[in-house]
# Entry
Amino acid sequence: KKSIIIVAVVVICFAVFGAYKFVDTYSHSYAENKAINYLCQKYDEDASAFEVLDYQQARYVRRDNGHFFGYKREWVDFSFKVKYKGKIMFVKKYNRVYFDDYQITDIQKWGTDWLKENVDENIVGFDLDSYDILQYQQNKNKGNYYIMMQTDIEEFLDSFTYNDNSTYTFYFCVPKIDPENITPYAFNIVNKLNTKLTLNEISTQYEDDGKLELKVQDSKYIDWRHIWEHID
# Structure
């Protein structure tokens, strides 16, 4: 009789755990509540301060893996489009952790100002997306509740430029520059960056209008994210 009770308890425990895992993985309302709770704790606000405008369901997607017959199956987790204090941000679930990109515009401005002052006055911006914020939090053990300050920007850029074996582009604009001088000027910027930051793969790109724009990457194959790019 005892063994039957033990088996029953084990079965119930597995059933409860399985139900929880399913809800945690696929339930939009459960994920939204956790996302809002995360924001409330991070920004010390009531839930009413945050307006959820839309969401992207967690799911598996198929991506081309570069082989003749190949597709790889990848998990894309929840993303929420949230309005807070007049700004739109994405709140994302990644490896069971929630993070947000509310400060992405501040980071672009702080970073560009720092680069102008410490590297080259003609730098007008740099590639930046939502996941760079998460990578910084993880690389520097800040945690997902950390709110960046302007004094963190050099540390952020140093982490950002030596991250994930990725290539990052810094944009520059020099008024009335001779086209023949653009490439040498770009090499000069890279050399100056090397003296200030720990670089992995870096490129520079000349932009004649010097304008960057915050865009949204929206595809069924990836999760929503903000990305700073040059305006085409």
